[in-house]
Write a structure and sequence with these properties.
The chain is mostly helical. The protein is built from three helices and no strands. The relative contact order is 0.22.
Amino acid sequence: MAINSVKIGILMLVLWVIPVVGLALAITGLVFALVSYGNLKNDMARAGIFLNGLGICLSILNLTVSMYLFLSGDI
């Protein structure tokens, strides 16, 4: 599962520009990484936690900026 979380994390770093897709992928990958880290505690699980945590931050930032621009009428 750790390898799958890293794969999802890499895919999510490409798709974070679409907030709903990026956020859903990041949460899924983070769950996979946390489950595998609890069982194995290997470096792949740590990489998955890092990539998917970064993806959650980027997706939330993108969603926040998009909502601000939409609500302020700048788009």
